[in-house]
Give the backbone structure.
Amino acid sequence: MQYDAFSYPALDQLITHVGRYRWRTGGQMAFPLTVRMPYGGGVRAPELHDDSPEAYYVHTPGVKVAIPSTPSDAKGLLAAAIRDPDPVVVFEPKLHYRTMRGEVPEGEHVVPLGQARTVRAGEDVTLVAYGSMVPLAEQAADAFADRASAEILDIRSLKPLDENALLTAAAKTGRVVIIQEAPRTAGYGAELAAILAEKAMLDLRGPVLRVTGYDVPYPYWQIEDAYMPSVERVVDAVDKLLEY
């Protein structure tokens, strides 16, 4: 589906019908529908080409959501989505179409839904991200590597979520920064922060911080860089947490 924001007229079908059929039939009818959507900004595209609408679909009962951050996961998660009995929305960071390179296994390659990926091991702070924010997290980790070691967790499967991986990564460092490109209010990062507040409170050494987009429509490309999460904003959040 080209592009993410063009999916909004189809929300009626996706929410009212697609997400409910397998449940309405008590599992007798499978609904293995996979919808691919380029999403996100950073490509100097016009309006309606840059949104990050993952929260709409994660909030839709019966629909699963995956977002790859590497070429290998782009293949593996898509294969898992096609094989799944439920409808799955796969968001593909359009920024990565021309900027991301990496090895892709030949033949059968399936990355199971519900399994996060540890990108980098660290001891002082955990950066949680998905999609195009994973490479940004790596850049930020390099920027503050002289004073802190970062654990980077790629969620990659937003629903089902690998909750154990999230809680383990948070407990390891006691400090968590969540990075999302989407607007801040009611974004997917808020769900991650809520899980940590409920289940990791005794492991945390400071508040869970979010680095996000802003609560405004995605801007035209002249001020796109001011909207997108940046290395500087992530580093600033980490510096605040290191004070705890």
About this structure: Residues 71-83 form the longest helix (13 residues). The beta strands are 34-39, 64-66, 88-93, 117-120, 125-129, 150-154, 157-159, 176-179, 209-211. The chain has two domains: 4-99, 117-241.
